[in-house]
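Quick one: structure tokens for this chain, please?
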Amino acid sequence: MFIRLMDTIPPRFTFDKSKTRILRWRNNAVSIYVMKNRFSFDDSKGTLRINNLQKSDSDKYSLDIQDSNAAAVENRTLNLSIQAPLSSVTLVNECLSQGEMRMSCTTEGVGDSPQYSWTLDGHTLTQDELLSGNKDTDIIVLRQDMSGLLSCSVSNHVSSISKDMRIATCVFINCTLSNGMHVSQWVFAATNTLCVEPTTVRDTTADHLICGLRAAVAVLLLIGITVYFAWKKKKSSKAEDPENSVCMVEMRSAAD
């Protein structure tokens, strides 16, 4: 990192970090040089270089310029703030006791001084949509039955990142489980696994076999009924036909 201290090198000046002297310039040369491995001054450009920049380098720096007689000419100050870029953002939602939804927006990594903003379907959240909390904080609470695409944006001076989530629906469940435990709470409808009756998986092979047997019995019964009525009809026809009648004749001798 380079800090431009001046355009023209004055006869005398000092550069301090808070109350720690970094360097002192006298007679066209540096007379005091603290932490040479971290700080280096280029007198041809009037710039100070900070090597291996660290968060601890965030501080107030001052430049005191003097004339050749050591009389004060000018004092300049610099507030240096070292910030790391933001990493990924995570959104976490939770149903509360009255069906409200709490949304938490957290940054992962080493991002510094994050600032938050929330939007719903592209517009900034209003007080009618917020039950509690400020739209500029990392945690908000939305009123019951809110819907749409919620977005959390996080930024600092060196980076910006956002995360979207489709708002889930909270539903109230009230039931007794098979183990006797009573459940009464608000849960997300899409992921609810409580108060759901278990589904019995039927053996389709057995069902098919039973249906086959029933069909076979029905066919055999139909065939039996058809044969019976055909036989009965045939018998009735024979009884009415004289040619098919049988006569019994007893023959006796003349003597009788």
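Residues 204-240 form the longest helix (37 residues).
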